[in-house]
């Protein structure tokens, strides 16, 4: 076969466009491809749902590859080990019951796990707004290429419809903050009806409470990962990642349960 630039271009544009057209309406749109977003995507896709992740940066991974202060290891507590093992991540028993994983290996395998299950990850696309329907239900995401914002260009975004949106944007809780800005009288399902703001480090409490508060914070909008701590005012925990994985898994299970119920109700 003789290589031809036009045909290389055609293959890329044709395949990417066809696939994108298939993802204009999905079951779940996830903002953020860090550990929580990837884990949620993996379990949702395993459950048979159509899932897309929009990740602001060029590479997925969020805060995980950097480990703890760039020491490329993360601590994972026992309960979350099966999640990492299910994607083939090697774990090492450290001291006093602490397990560690290589941070780059762990996030790479989670990404592959999500893709193998059928989730689609779109790099360098930011969720800049949400789609709203009756009763302020979150019904999709508004996306744009990240570089458009960086370059300060005025380019209108595109909209994607979804049954649920997961805010897995980490410390910023970017999607939830957008909701409170765009719908000023919105009352979130939190202690003060708004975004409380993440608290200083207390690993034990931060990790315990993150799974407890993972869930739907507003009709159509779920939180997973560090955005839970940011929205509910829970402590941060440093480079221990079990909570992120368990939170992503819980958000996925809750959505799968909802959609199963929706189907049986019909
Ligand atoms: C698209 C976006 C947008 C947007 C941001 O920060 P993350 O790794 O988040 P989690 O919750 O999966 O994991 C948190 C963990 O990494 C962490 O920070 C911990 C444990 N901290 C503890 C501590 O004490 O500091 O990933 C979020 C991802 C990132 O890749 C962002 O680029 C992306 O979301 N993102 N993507 N649209 N509007 N905002």
Walk me through what this model shows.
The protein is of the alpha/beta class and 266 residues long. The chain has a single domain (5-62, 107-265), classed as FAD/NAD(P)-binding domain (3-Layer(bba) Sandwich). Helices cover 40% and strands 23% of the residues. The chain is built from 9 helices and 11 strands. The chain has helices at residues 5-22, 35-46, 81-86, 103-117, 146-150, 174-182, 203-213, 226-232, 242-265, and strands spanning 25-31, 51-54, 73-76, 91-93, 99-102, 120-122, 125-133, 137-145, 158-167, 215-218, 221-223. The strands form 2 sheets. Strands 1, 2, 6, 7, 8, 9, 10 and 11 form an 8-stranded mixed sheet that branches. α7 (203-213) runs parallel beside α9. The longest helix has 24 residues, at 242-265. The radius of gyration is 19 Å and the shape is globular. The mean pLDDT is 97. Residues 31-37, 54-57, 62-64, 126-127, 168-172, 174, 201, 225-226, 236-238, 241, 244 line the site of ligand 48H.
Keywords:
266 residues; alpha/beta; FAD/NAD(P)-binding domain; eight-stranded mixed sheet; three-stranded antiparallel sheet; 9 helices; binds ligand 48H
Task: Give a brief outline of the structure.
This protein has helices at 5-22, 35-46, 81-86, 103-117, 146-150, 174-182, 203-213, 226-232, 242-265; strands spanning 25-31, 51-54, 73-76, 91-93, 99-102, 120-122, 125-133, 137-145, 158-167, 215-218, 221-223.
